[in-house]
Write the structure tokens for this entry.
Amino acid sequence: MEVTFFEAARNCACKVAEVIEFNQKNPFEAKVVTSYLFGMLTMLGSDMDADGSEIQASLVAALVHNFHFSELEASKLSSHAIHCTEKAKHPTQFTVIGRGLESYVDYYQKGEYKEIQKDVSSIFDIVRECQQENIQQAR
């Protein structure tokens, strides 16, 4: 029996939720993880010919069931990730989505799940460092 996109997306989100550690109450970290997962699910959707609404629905479901966000939080995070596909308006989050796309191929498909945590942690570190530099430059 062939696996549906939603089953494959659920499996992907479950694996990601098992390995990613982040502070759910931190809006920055929640947005990074959401954008990263959105990238992964988008690549999965591309492989399985899923449409945009299926990808968004799977993202919201993952945020609620695997990451334990409320439905409202998941909806807002999902909408934010979709808006971040405009590189000119959201260059940082656009890049995070791209890292998620690459991670699906480089790590998830190869079963190298722990590499996903390392990748997300490096994103947190890089973005925080850039934020600190921007604050210092503004002074």
Residues 57 and 78 are 9 Å apart (CA to CA). The mean pLDDT is 92. Residues 5-138 form one domain.
